[in-house]
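Quick question: what would this complex look like in 3D?
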Amino acid sequence: MKRLPLTLRRQLFATPTDGIITVGLLTLLSWAGWGVLNWAINSAQWLVVRANAAALTIGRYPEAQEWRLWLLLGMLTSLAGLSWGRLRGASGWPLNDRIAAGLLVALAVGVPPLLAFGAINQMRLLFLLLLLLLGRLAFSHRFSQASSKRFGDWWALIWGVAYLFGLWLIAGGLGLPGVRPSDWGGLLFTLLITSLTLLLALPLGVILALGRRSSLPLFRYISVGIIELIRGAPLITLLFLGQNLVGFLAPNGLAPDRVWRATGVLTVFAAAYLAEAIRGGLNAIPRAQFEAARSLGLSSVHTMALVVLPQALKVALPAMGGQCISLLQDTTLLSIIGLFDLLGIARSVLANPDWLGRYAEVYLLLAVLYWCSCAALSLGSRALEKRLASPGLQSNPKPQ
Amino acid sequence: MNATKQLMIEAKGVQKWYPNGFHALRGVDLEVHRGEKVVIMGPSGSGKSTFLRTFNALEDYQEGTVVVDGMELNNDLRNIDAVRKEVGMVFQQFNLFPHLSVLANLLLAPIWVRKRNRAEVEQQALALLERVGIAEQAHKFPGQLSGGQQQRVAIARALCMEPRLMLFDEPTSSLDPEKVREVLDVMRQLAIDGMTMVVVTHEVGFAREVADRVVLMDEGRVVEIAPPQQFFNHPEHERTKRFLAQIL
Amino acid sequence: MPVPWWRDNRKLGWLIQLAAGLFLLLVIALLLGNLERNLARSGLRLTLGWLNQPAGFDIAETLLPYRASDSYGRALLAGFVNTLRVVLSGLVLATALGVAVGAASFSGNPLLRGVTRVYVELVRNIPLLLQLVFWYFAVFLNLPSADQALQLPGLQLAKSGIYLFGADLVNGELVGGLRLSLELAALLTGLVIYSAAFIAEVVRGGIASVPLGQWEAAKSLGLKPLQILRLVVLPQALRVIVPGLNSQYISLAKNSSLAVAIGYPDLYAVAETTLNQTGRGIEVFLLLLLIYLMLDLVISVVMNAIDRLVRLQER
């Protein structure tokens, strides 16, 4: 162990050029680091963040109805905890989990006072954390392994139902007053749009990918046309199309709410890129798999659904994960067409004369939020890949 | 031949051209009776695999007729589906479904095609795995098995659909020599149990022991059909003699 | 017995396509009908004649001489030239930076490797638009005035712009030299830093695809690391890198349209203003689509030619 710093030092100064690079980088990094820290503690004014925390997180959602959001959050956190427990099984608390739990506790306890959340909200956040950890405990304890397995097949369905129920709850179900989508904003809006778009774009992407590989020329040309057209156009022009031109195409110039139009555009956009990723997966499946399934008597539909697509989606998972991250980042373009996603709300806050010039503080906060979300998606996708990998190598023998 | 035995396969004048113009099958005839074991041999490119694959519609043909178990294989989708249910195929590359366990591989088709009850199929599947000698691997995944084990699972998977005819396309060509024997043993037992089998293979020993008739194909045509005794010891045609000289 | 059409393998495909085709035509007819009615109602028949009308708006900066009394067509052209300016210089700079970072990730110096890793992971996970507005609003708009301009080798940074190749302070203002507006500078900075991270990954993948044996053979011949890279590894890595670069370049070209968010008058920005003034949504959109698709096509054609060149050299 003691040898480690020695080899490091040797590598850092192996040649004179290395030495210069190391010294140069170290000076640059420490100067930059010091500058940033100095600014963050001394000259930055973080009040802008505290004062607008509500707007940044949930936009113009009426305060009296906030409890619905907390309810949704509680539901999702419990589900997340249970999922976490299922993922780990009865293997106790590995090091990664303990680090993650520790981090979460530190965040939940330390950050809210910094951002001056009210006492009630702090308690709520701590309660959410409790739900998460309890859920994790519940499903990983050996006594509940049986129930965990029984729910196993339905897990995706449970998440789906919870998500849709939550959506309905926020919009205005159960006889509660409705909240227009244009009033959802900030982080809530960004996360909702991303998840909704993803949910809708996946089946559409599968259809486009299958169409592109179809033996029937009509479907093939249409799929290729749609995919290439969408991939060639900048997203902003497509959003522009959605906002301005749908009115021309609809009867009597009626058109759905701007938010739904933007969601529609994003969905088709994401579907085109997903289709390419899925097509890569489909291309990786040897024709022999199709033949084996057909020779057993399975219909084309069954072959696709039970044999080919499951394998293809697994292969395409890394590429699809990348698309998810791109999608999350693309939601920022909604701010250009005047919708209030996280960036949009931030820019409207900065337009307020009270907060003039506080660009660095707000944008840095946003950068942190986006970076954490994308990093989380990245890690999640990699964990999913590992979880879904079939044990052992591929079935077919090595070529002779 | 017993006159009451039904014809399992009746192929007459089958011709096939590939889209690039290659004439793969140039008028092939073959009759296979119920319970018969036919071995097809020939040099590579002779069309033997292509011919075999016309029996379950994995290959189509432009002229001639192929009738399997009374059902003519033409453009009629209903016939194609019906034939595939009754015909099992084992491939050179095993082609197990890697994302499913061994047991799940067997259960898939009977449940979704024959719409059978899962518990009942599971019992049958486990019995089949026992029969081919890998009952204890039922919950493993194909990637965790050796080649010989995978091929035996493939045979069990085809048998689970209770086919009336089994097709084998060079089933041992991708196996290490030590594993060939375990698969041939399973096929031998299958033959003894009365299954109608058409096997494309290079395994002369197996052909001598098990086949009722041996067929030589070359350049898309049937050159000679004869019982193994005659085929290997007193072949009629020059080409057969030349082929045997190469492989014996 | 002839096979009924609904079970016929060969006919089924055509019948499905026929049915689908008819349905599609129906939908398109419906939409076009609506379009026709709505256009008629707002008095905007599809035409390109309005391109000759005077634009009536200013463009903050153009390479092309342009006045507010010039036509819409000329305005769009000026915007397109601005887009080309950004895309071409962006491609060059991003490639240079990306190749440098990509190569650096194989350096023997762990600190350098670490820095490149952090750079790529940081930039890839933050949305480009956020980076752009950050650069523009939080950095470039806070530059000091001309008389206290920041001096860097060959560069002078001030509130009035970025000056390359020597500018002199005259009466408290900087004149001469090559001047980049703050908007262009911010756009370029953001685009280049963002794209370079992805290009670095492509380069890294390409270099990693060259077998280790090549490095070892070259080293045993006495070549130094930079020489190995230049003479042995990069030429082989290019086979993998060039196709990857194709898609990154197209991305960069499309991302240039975000210029509208920081006030640089690129093609999209001018088009948006044009739409606001003329209300001619369909024509403007089709023009935009056409031009960007053409840009993508040109990039692809050039990259494919380079690809073929790179591959030819190995036989």
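Answer marked as accepted. Chain B has a mean pLDDT of 92.
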